From TrEMBL:
Its cofactor is Mg(2+). It comes from the Bacteria. The keyword Nucleotide-binding applies. This is Uracil phosphoribosyltransferase. The keyword Magnesium applies. The gene is upp. One of its GO terms (cellular component) is cytoplasm. Transmembrane segments: none annotated. Residues 6-208 form the Phosphoribosyltransferase domain. Keywords: Allosteric enzyme, Glycosyltransferase, GTP-binding, Magnesium, Nucleotide-binding, Transferase. It comes from Virgibacillus oceani. Pathway: Pyrimidine metabolism; UMP biosynthesis via salvage pathway; UMP from uracil: step 1/1. Its EC number is 2.4.2.9. Uracil binds at residues 194, 199-201.
Length: 209
């Protein structure tokens, strides 16, 4: 079963409090999501493999470490996932970015991909799927299925806040996918909002209603 990592660094928790606050306006909300995504990028990359190289310092020749060429792909789920991309790229600037947009057909209940554009070599990349809110887990589940159908082999899911229902869905459907969160909240309400959550992440990021 995929592991759930709650990245409870004090800076992440502090900033998340202001992200949750209903009095935080669009500009500040966007900046805070960006900062938290950057801090989460630091944590989610902790286990990237390193390789040793030889470096000439001004003093002597030393054995040093660099990333072992692991290629990263960031996959924001449209639209709210876009709010996490820049923060991630500030620490992983060479990452490629693929986009997935989907909705459920109201009659067939099947996922419909209305937009999908991915790096050509997704099967060789460690993919990090980005979506701020893991509520029922429906979109993240569908997006991960879409990526696997196209050859993705290594996938992580990174969200700001999850409900236990969403985590359970991903663990059941994708036992190979680890989930990285800033917080695991209590539950979903009758309208599918995470409680206590932060409201609608897309609307708060983009100032829509
Ligand atoms: N999507 C959101 O943006 N917020 C929620 O609480 C649930 C789903």
């Amino acid at each position: 079963m995929g592991k759930v990592h709650v990245l409870d660094h004090p800076l992440i928790q502090h900033k998340l409090t202001y992200i949750r606050d209903k009095n935080t306006g669009t500009k500040e909300f966007r900046e805070l999501v960006d900062e938290v995504a950057m801090l989460m990028a630091f944590e989610i990359t902790r286990d990237l493999p390193l390789q040793e190289i030889t470096t000439e310092t001004p003093v002597m020749e030393a054995t040093t470490k660099v990333l072992a060429g692991k290629k990263i792909g960031l996959i924001p789920i449209l639209r709210a996932g876009l709010g996490m991309v820049d923060g991630m790229l500030s620490l992983i600037p060479a990452a490629r970015v693929g986009h997935v947009g989907l909705y459920r057909d109201p009659e067939s209940l099947q996922p419909v991909e209305y937009y999908i554009k991915l790096p050509s070599d997704i099967s060789e990349r460690e993919l990090i799927v980005l979506d701020p809110m893991l509520a029922t887990g429906g979109s993240a589940n569908d997006a991960i299925h879409s990526l696997k159908k196209r050859g993705a082999k290594q996938i992580r899911l990174m969200c700001l806040i999850a409900a236990p229902e969403g985590v359970k869905k991903i663990q059941e459907e994708h036992p190979d996918v680890d989930v990285y969160l800033a917080a695991l909240d209590e539950k979903l309400d009758d309208h599918g909002y995470i409680v206590p959550g932060l409201g609608d992440a897309g609307d708060r990021l983009y100032g829509t209603k």
